[in-house]
Amino acid sequence: MRKIVLFLCCILFFCVCFAITREKHVRVQEFFCDEEPIVLNLEERNVYFYCIDDQFTVNVSGSKIPIKEFLLSNDDAFSLLEENLQREEGPSDGGTQIYKSIKGSEFSSKGFTYIRCNRLDGSNTDIYIGPIELTYQNNFCE
What we know:
Blueprint: H1 2-24, E1 26-28, E2 31-33, E3 38-42, E4 45-49, E5 57-60, E6 63-66, H2 67-73, H3 77-84, E7 86-88, E8 97-100, E9 112-116, E10 127-131
Parallel strand pairs: 4-10
Antiparallel strand pairs: 1-2, 3-4, 5-6, 7-8, 8-9, 9-10
């Protein structure tokens, strides 16, 4: 009986630890991104960068520009991104949209994911950007 109680306690402990870790980090399909996201406030919305470095660039007028720099230096950066990325099936929350940059495309040499929250009540317009493997998470767009 003690072994069963000990076994159940271990399972409970593991589940609690996993739940705490899951809230702080984002699982990306092929790897685990354990870096805290870089958060910028642009145009009255938070932009979360997960595991994005200066190798993630966009091609504008023949120049490769790191995506963070591109967003900081262009007033219409969000609409330009959405025009040049491939839209994918998103969650059924009424407005969130997911876009992917195809690796090796004219617009971006290294693929990335761009998720734009758009709650119907206007309460969340955050953006999440990460490697191409980044997928929509339940804690996004809350």
